[in-house]
Amino acid sequence: MGWFDGWFGPSSNDASDPLAHLDPKLREFLQKEAPVKYTPSSEQNPQAPIIPPHRQLDAQSQKEQENASQSSVPPESLFPDGRYAHLWKTYTPQSTIEAATKTDHEKLMDVLDSYKDRKAAIGRAALENCADEQFTWATCMKSGGVKARLTMCSDDVKKFERCYNNQSRLLKALGYLNTYGRSAEDDERIQMRADELYHQMLRQEEEIKKAKEEGRQAPEFRSVLEEAAKVRAKQQGNVAAAAAAQNIPPPPPELIASWKEKLEKLPEQDRAAEEAALRADYRANAEMAASIQGLWQEQAKQREERRKKGEETFMDRFRGMVAVGKVTEKKEDNNK
Fold first, then answer.
1. Contacts 24+ apart (CB under 8 A), 107-113
2. pTM recorded for the entire structure
């Protein structure tokens, strides 16, 4: 059709693409064999479609609505793109409903169970950190030498017991017993830090022992408990408001005296860690007692509100009688 183009002039597409008049097979061959990829100018500079202003506004408003719906969707939804967002406006989480319908006894048991779980978690974390010592002990019991079996692998048992006791003390000193809104990542970070401090303590003891054997002056190291105290202070900074609200009193002199008696029975190198663990136990017990006291005060406030409204129950009257009886007994004891 070249003669037709010669009469009426080349089309706009042919003018922009000099290979347009070639045979399709020849053009395909040239495009494959050419060292530089040839792209027609019509493909290089595509014209952007012109969108009317009113359609641009509609698209922008639709995008804003999608963003608003996505922000209002709770994490429980399986559709984070904003679908069914209108159904989630009146959604109440299951945990909130359970907390609102719990009885006083259930709230008290939650506090006690939380404290027991933290105590048990320390044992599990210490066992995880002492997995190598426990594995060495088990291997010795299965395939150890004659001397090791005759002594029931006492050396490995002592290493495991020392690891477990010191890991438990370091975990307590680092604040692992604290129950104020800490995530699992924070717990794991404390556990790893306790393991790191324990092995640092072992390296320090090894260097001191080696220096004594060589007749050199024993090097001085900073106690690992100082670093544990820094970590705990940083961790307590995140929960300072909650801890201040509890108003935890200092330990009484009688308790400190019992601590000293217990510490005197331990080796010198273990006393500082044990004292830090005892103080951590005291703080955890005081926090639990303060939480229970707060529950009792809340219950008393609710009973007083029901009494003012004339909705006092039989249990409210019974508890009031018991409270009056206790106050009377205290007054009689004071008079005696």
1. 107/295, 108/292, 108/295, 111/288, 111/291, 111/292, 111/295, 112/288
2. 0.58
- Decide: 166 and 201 in contact? Cβ < 8 Å: yes
Is 115 within the bounds of a domain? no
Q: Give domain status of residue 326, yes or no.
A: no
d(CA 133, CA 193): 18
My answer on whether 146 and 252 are in the same domain is yes
Amino acid 81 reads D
Domain count of the fold of the chain: 2
pLDDT tens, residue by residue, 225-259: 666 666 655 555 544 444 454 567 788 889 889 98
Sign of CA dihedral 206, 207, 208, 213: positive
Supply 185's token pair: 């990542």
Range of the domain at 17: 2-42
Do residues 178 and 184 touch, judged by C-beta distance below 8 A? no
Do residues 104 and 303 touch, judged by C-beta distance below 8 A? no
Q: Are 12 and 38 in contact (CB under 8 A)?
A: no
Q: What region does 178 belong to: left with phi over 0, alpha with psi -120 to 50, or beta? A: beta
Q: Encoding tokens for residue 182?
A: 């800490």
